[in-house]
Write a structure and sequence with these properties.
A hairpin with a 4-residue loop joins β9 and β10. By secondary structure, this protein is mainly beta. It is built from seven helices and 32 strands. About 10% of the residues lie in helices and about 45% in strands. The longest helix has 17 residues. α2 packs antiparallel against α3, α3 crosses α4 and α3 crosses α7.
Length: about 700
């Protein structure tokens, strides 16, 4: 093994030789699941929004000895200075532990590390952390504090830990040194409170992987521990940013931006010498260019918005220097803010008359979502110089200006009777059970939404089984939870926008949740005026088709939007689908249109876990044609959890669960619960970014 590791490191070192010396010491994942060296942590954490997926063969067998096995790790940076990680430790991949003679290890553990704030980074960094939090077996329960200091190409770390491992690892004082002379190469040496260990790490340059992520190979080539027959082990890690925010060249603010005719933004006409005219001036119409010119600008704007793929487009103007745009977004399905940004950018592009006030109304199936009012000249200056304009935002609809002249047909590109097909994976899985390290059942799902009239439509859904592991076969242990090929949804929905920020949606029809049901669901949601608070009441009643029985659920949910930090907090209490009652809580840390989440449940069992959600579609989907639209889901979620507070980690499926549909108030009308005044103001620069990308 030592020879193989040496050959691997030597080969990669030769390939990477031209790379320049390191300017910053990298953060690596340890073999034990947290940011650090080999077995010990340092005081650094994984960068915010990054995830690290790793594998190594140094198995810590219940804290008693080290053997050749399997460790699978996953780590993520949730916010500045805080990381969470999980580790699956297993002696074998697929052995059925009910049938083997010896007792084997398969364990899931969760870890967390927090870097203490308010300590100047040029002094040192200090972090506290815990390993194997709250699980049933707690084979690796550890608590520690560590400090690190960087000097030149070195990082020195020292700390103290408490654990109950028989090996003595991380039970007492520990220390480590990292030397990174190059970006791609690092040497590490440590004492883990039991033994001395040394390792080398080689990183494949990110540019060699099309800037997708970083691939790091690790060789622990020395250890003097008395608890292992081998002193060598190896590992591999892949680190990738879950979300990368687009970066654009900043434009210096100026009181009178100068734009040359050769510039790509030359169509913006600025004239700062003319006196501004207020929209309340009864003689404001004298400052307009001819009605013919205003009609031409409005018609050109409308044509551009229809070409962009927006639906129900209406454009009008009046003699009070006001222009009105109504539209529905069906192309920027990942985030409705992108649609608003492109519409406002188009207005500033095509409306060149001075002193114009824009009034923009965004809706979905004629259900008002958000309205905005501002000055076209100020917004144009925002596009050019990033000087923020004054924009008034209304939740829902705002009063419509009077005496409007509408351009062309009143409602161009109607959204109705055009099917929208959304594809997504359906995945059920089990981690680190007695049957295997990973078992899964995978299907390809298609959901069809056919809008019929205001707030109403038909929702159809089904899926085709693609693949599954042996334990999800029809005669295997997990057969009742496999993803079958089936048609499982046919519902009619009706949504209403009521006064005071209240939305109500009712769905009724056919549901398949292992058995066939006819059912009805109702969701009533209240959104506060600023959009920071959201309260939802959910009820459902279902009759078995083949049995004289029924099921029901009733829950109340609350969401708080901490928009300044892109964090949402969720809590839901009540009776759920499987007749379990209790509460579930969740914190979501958003990175653009993706999020990482920590959750906890307390119904039939107590459970904690980690989840992520990512869009499986481009930022801008295909436009809706007369035949409809095909797209990927804007939010696909995957999670892993474990029971806590019990002596055994018995599997539990679908706890705190409610039947879900692809059409809901949150997904269709509230931008995954984020569409609000507060969210728009906190992400105002995104409006400019999307216009510059798609102009």
């Amino acid at each position: 093994m030592l020879k193989a590791n040496t050959l691997l490191i030597s080969g990669l070192a030769t390939l990477c030789a031209p790379v320049l010396a390191s300017e910053k010491i990298n953060n690596y994942q340890s073999f034990t699941g947290y940011t650090g060296l080999i077995n010990t942590p340092n005081a650094n954490v994984i960068d915010v929004g990054n995830i690290d997926i790793g594998y190594n063969n140094m198995l810590d067998l219940r804290g008693k000895e080290y053997i050749d096995g399997h460790n699978f790790s996953f780590a993520a940076g949730l916010f500045d200075g805080f990381e969470v990680s999980g580790l699956i430790a297993a002696e074998s991949m697929n052995d059925n532990l009910f049938l083997v003679n010896e007792k084997q290890l398969r364990d899931v553990s969760f870890n967390a590390k927090y870097q203490l704030p308010y300590i100047p980074k040029d002094w040192l960094t200090v972090a506290i952390g815990a390993k194997d939090i709250g699980g049933a077996a707690n084979n690796y329960e550890t608590y520690y504090a560590v400090a690190s200091k960087e000097l030149w190409d070195f990082r020195f770390s020292a700390g103290y830990a408490v654990s109950d491992r028989a090996t003595g690892q991380m039970d007492g004082p520990f220390a480590g040194i990292e030397w990174q002379p190059f970006d791609w190469f690092a040497l590490q040496a440590e004492h883990d409170a039991d033994a001395f260990n040394a390792a080398v790490k080689v990183t494949v340059p990110k540019k060699w992987l099309y800037d997708i992520g970083e691939l790091t190979f690790t060789s622990r080539f020395y250890s003097n521990t008395d608890y292992s027959e081998e002193d060598t082990s190896w590992g591999v890690n892949f680190k990738i940013p879950l979300f990368t925010k687009p970066e654009y060249e900043a434009i210096e603010s100026a009181p009178e931006p100068v734009v040359s005719e050769s510039d790509e933004l030359a169509y913006f006409k600025l004239n700062a010498n003319k006196e501004p005219v207020t929209i309340k001036d009864p003689n404001a119409h004298r400052y307009f260019e001819s009605n013919k010119e205003m009609t031409r600008q409005a018609a050109t704007l409308k044509h551009a918005l229809v070409k962009d793929g927006f639906e129900s487009v209406q454009v009008g103007f009046n003699n009070d220097k006001q222009i009105v745009v109504k539209f529905e977004n069906s192309t920027f399905n990942r985030n409705d803010l992108d649609a608003i940004g492109l519409v406002l950018g188009r207005i500033s592009q095509y409306v060149s008359s001075e002193g114009i006030e824009f009034n923009v109304f965004m809706s979905k199936q004629d259900i008002p979502q958000l309205s905005l009012k501002g000055n076209v000249d100020e917004y144009r200056e925002f596009i050019l110089s990033q000087k923020h304009p004054e924009v008034v935002v209304y939740q829902g609809a705002m009063p419509l200006p009077r005496a409007l002249t509408w351009v062309g047909l009143m409602n161009t590109n109607s959204p109705y009777f055009k099917p929208r097909v959304t594809f997504s994976p359906a995945l059920t899985n089990a981690y680190a059970t007695e049957l295997g390290v990973y078992d899964f059942s995978l299907a390809l799902r298609a959901d069809v939404d056919i809008p019929l009239w205001q707030g109403a439509g038909i929702n159809l859904g089904g899926q085709v089984s693609v693949a599954n592991s042996d334990d999800f076969d029809e005669d295997a242990a997990f057969r009742y939870y496999r993803e079958e090929s089936e048609f499982d949804r046919a519902t009619l929905y009706q949504t209403f926008a009521l006064p005071y920020g209240i939305y109500n949606q009712t769905q009724l029809g056919y549901y398949k949740e292992r058995f066939d049901f006819y059912g009805i669901q109702n969701e009533t949601t209240w959104l506060s005026p600023e959009g920071r608070h959201k309260v939802s009441a959910n009820i459902g009643y279902f009759d078995y088709q083949d049995y004289d029985a029924n099921r029901d659920y009733q829950t109340i949910a609350y969401q708080f939007n901490w928009v300044e930090h892109d964090v949402t907090f969720h809590a839901e209490v009540g009776k759920f689908w499987n007749e379990d009652s209790g509460i579930k809580v969740e914190s979501r840390f958003w990175f653009g249109d993706s999020y990482l989440a920590l959750y906890g449940e307390d119904t039939d069992a107590r459970k904690i876990g980690f989840a992520f959600s990512i869009p499986l579609s481009p930022r801008k989907d295909m436009s809706v044609t007369r035949y409809g639209q095909v797209k990927g889901t804007e939010a696909w979620r995957h999670s892993i959890g474990t029971r806590i507070g019990e002596s055994q980690n018995t599997l539990i499926f679908n706890q705190a669960y409610k039947p879900v549909n692809s059409v809901s108030i949150d997904r269709k009308y509230l931008n995954q619960g984020r569409l609000s005044k507060a969210y728009l103001y906190a992400n105002f620069s995104r409006l400019r970014d999307v216009y510059l990308e798609y102009k």
